[in-house]
Write a structure and sequence with these properties.
This protein is of the alpha/beta class. It is 46% helix and 15% strand. It has 10 helices and 10 strands. α6 runs antiparallel to α8 and α6 packs antiparallel against α9. The longest helix has 53 residues. The chain is elongated. The two termini are 49 Å apart. The C terminus is likely disordered.
Length: 364
């Protein structure tokens, strides 16, 4: 409504409704066809039996009682035929669903068991990428091209670059959400594919831009099925995410409903809930994608201070456009068009950015 777009979406709705009506009529026609065909076949056979019986009675080869018996037996004999026609029709209607299910079952399953050598180990957070290349669609421009870097346990690193430079893709690869199409990615010296998905995600948590909130309470959205954590851990995660001040102002507290996809919360409140969800899992490696994009300056400073506390001794990799977030890191990886531009200490990269920033013209 803010853009006077009601007419556009009403036209789209009309088109969808028309297609739905036509599809529903076609579906009814085909769903009713087996029943109609079965009834027609039974009636046709019955009529033929009666006609033949009349000629047989006229010829003296059959009595009226025999014809009645034949008609009754014919009706019973047609029951399996009717059932078979109905079953064939249902199978035909279910074929698209079976094909869709087959495509799901045919997709590659996530690994359920880690290799024996690493199954009992805790992930320390040593990450190494060699020649990572990834593209989402065949023929599309690659999101990452020959990306190579290494991150030590406990290191704080920022990924910077323009929108579309590959920062979010790099984080998704590090979290094991997608697989690289070429190159290698190792965690603690082992290929990421050797880890079971559950083991990997217990120690490496991604808080992405497109993470979703679900219908329910704040507390349910923070835990998402996680067992009740220790009170100290829960208190620290909520405080470091900047969610405690918001909850303190609400009468329902953590039992407040967030609405479908978090529609009852503001952008900053949604981001705080998502950040609390990541911190309460206490991961060894924390991956953040624009964690303060929806926050005001004061809230951003509070969250930065909270993240500094929550990531002591942890590996932190944060993709950001906000210079304030760089206070958390000591090293910056600069990406442009999926390629590595620089991987240096923070002060060197900031100096490079300062040299690229156009200077205002001086007055004569």
């Amino acid at each position: 409504k803010a853009n006077l777009a009601e007419g556009l979406f009403q036209r789209r709705w009309d088109i969808v409704a028309d297609h739905f009506g036509v599809a529903s009529g076609t579906q009814r026609k085909w769903s009713e066809l087996p029943g109609a065909l079965s009834a027609f076949l039974i009636q046709l056979v019955t009529v033929l039996v009666v006609i033949i019986g009349i000629f047989q009675i006229s010829a003296g080869m059959m009595t009226s009682g025999a014809m009645i018996a034949v008609i009754m037996l014919t009706g019973r004999a047609m029951v399996p035929v009717s059932t078979a026609i109905s079953t064939i029709g249902k199978v035909y209607q279910l074929l698209p669903q079976f094909n869709g299910l087959a495509s799901i079952l045919g997709s590659m399953a996530e690994r359920q068991v880690s290799d024996p050598a690493i199954g009992q180990r805790e992930i320390a957070g040593l990450i190494a990428a060699r020649g990572l290349t990834h593209r989402f669609d065949e023929g599309a421009e690659p999101a990452l091209i020959d990306l190579t870097f290494s991150i030590k346990p406990g290191e704080k690193v920022a990924l910077i670059g323009r929108s579309g430079s590959g920062k979010s893709t790099a984080l998704a690869l590090l979290a094991g959400m997608i697989e690289p199409q070429s190159g290698s990615l190792t965690i603690d010296g082992h290929a990421i594919s050797q880890y079971a998905s559950a083991q990997l995600r217990r120690s490496i948590v991604l808080c992405s831009q497109d993470a979703a909130l679900f219908e329910g309470t704040l507390w349910e959205n923070i835990l998402l099925g996680l067992p009740e954590p220790a009170p100290e851990l829960a208190e620290r995660a909520i405080r470091c995410a900047g969610l405690d001040a918001f909850v303190a102002r609400t009468a329902q507290g953590y039992m407040r409903k967030v609405g479908p996809r978090g529609s009852a919360l503001s952008g900053g409140q949604k981001q705080a809930v998502l950040l609390a969800r990541a911190l309460i899992r206490d991961p060894q490696v924390l991956l953040l994608d624009e964690p303060t994009a929806s926050l005001d300056i004061t809230s951003e400073q509070n969250v930065i201070a909270g993240l500094r506390e929550a990531t002591i001794g942890k590996t932190l990799i944060v993709a950001t456009h906000r210079f304030a977030v760089l206070d958390l890191v000591d090293r910056v990886i600069w990406l442009e068009d999926g390629k590595l531009v620089a991987d240096r200490p923070k002060h060197e990269v900031l100096a490079m950015l300062a040299r690229q920033t156009p200077q205002p013209a001086r007055a004569a």
